[in-house]
Amino acid sequence: MRAWVVRAGANGEREQAALEEGMLLAGWVELGDLTGTATRDDIKAAVAAAYADEGPYTVGNWTGQLYRFVHEIQPGDFVVLPLKSWKVAVGRVAGDYEHRADAPEGLRHVRRVEWLVKDVDRQSIQSDLQNSMGSLLTVFELSRFGAAERIAALAEGKPDPGRPDADEFAAGLTEPTKLYEEVRRRASDEPLTLSIRDFLAVWGVQRRYPAAVEQIRNDLDERGLVTVPPFTEGSIDSKIAVLAGGAEPDEAGTSAVTRLTTSTTAASHLLGDAYDAVKRLVDRDGGEAETQAVAYRVSNLESANRMPESVRVGDSLNTAMTIMVLRGYSQLPVLDADGRLQGVVSWESIGRAHMADPRANLEAATVRGQEADRSDDLLDWIGTVQQSGYVLVRDHDHKVCGLVTASDLTVQFGTRVRPFVLVEEIEQRLRRVVDRCIPLDRIRATVPPRRASQVNSAANLTFGAYKHLFLVPENWAALGWAIDQEHFLAALEECRQFRNGLMHFSPDPVTEDQLLPAQGLLELLRSMDPHN
Known about the structure:
The protein folds into four domains: 3-155, Roll (ph1033 like fold); 168-294, no CATH class; 300-398, CBS-domain; 409-528, no CATH class. 44% of the residues lie in helices and 16% in strands. It has 23 helices and 16 strands. The strands form four sheets. It has a six-stranded mixed beta sheet, with helices on both faces. Strands 10-11-12-13 form a four-stranded mixed beta sheet. Strands 7-9-8 form a three-stranded antiparallel beta sheet. α22 (485-502) crosses α23 (512-528). The two termini are 45 Å apart.
């Protein structure tokens, strides 16, 4: 059993038809019937012909999505349709791919589906699964954190049961005091370990905003605790240990942090690929375990933590080529028996090897591969990924543990740009309506007198100034909006707080539920001023 997301257009334009007709509806209006396609190459050729102006990356990306829609999705699989109402519909696929030549544009490529529930509140879906649903792709699989079983529960009207590997104990650490007591209760050789996500939840936060990071650091310092590695490093699902860093040394004269680090078995078991960060913490000059600043590491990308398909030294070149064709890959890592990178085989390297020797084997077609460490700064590798199309990722044992492609970067940064675009449109709409409806002298009255002369339009106002501007009865009346002022101002304040948090760097993604207030405010502003 598998679970998929199939969107109904970038703005949900096919949503009503999908729900009413019991269909999954792919767009790509220029494409004809794909019933006769058997391979990715068949679909790729059709996409390239229909969209001749698109480059190789886009053609490859669309090919992958359409191949899933036509061939990989199977009857009986679960499917999720995100709705404009910020609810989701869940259904079960009921038929194979069909092409309806006589249907309106955008409604021709279809899969029949039985909608089991059409109004699942996103608040009932835990943030890790919401994050997985946040891809900007139209068709993609939900494959992590036991997604299929959790979607099945939603289809039965039950709440999201959460990750099958969720730490039930961590869920009970509902406040810092409980965490402190648990650390103190444990023996030093059995430290408290939990994910950064669960650790942040102890303080009631979901992302590592600067203000939250500072508060947590101060609380830990006050209690003499330290996280290993620092909770500001790695992805939000990375594991950390919480130790009594300020406790006196044991009989051997070593601290809890050093004992954990020097015990290879314990460190590997508890911290895995975070071991390098542990060493940096212990070996840092000055002896004091300072907390690292928040950084955006390669490990923050989901694909950097997912073992890529590969071939081994000694495999045949035919094996590599078969996998590449079946999966639509451009390259494959070649690993030794210990999982370390020996090189990469690609269609280009295969072509070059065959030009030199038609009987070339895998070794002859293997070339040096680009390899990043999980703890590297992601920004340092963007140019390499852009130029080569990929970079492989290794863990602290120098074993391959992930693969980052240009597609991964596009999705990741597209997701991160979305909140900024959302807030920017809200601000633009506020500026336009204020400049159109409220005289300049009343706009200037919102700011301190010493700044009034510097205000030439609403563009010179801070976001927080709009609340004070709209609290003036004649200004609110000038807008002519038939909406509730109290609720609007509350939404405006919530958006202001969201915006302020957004302006501070955090390595953690913004979830759909965190976007809800701003998205709702934007929809309201669009409704009040539909022509702009």
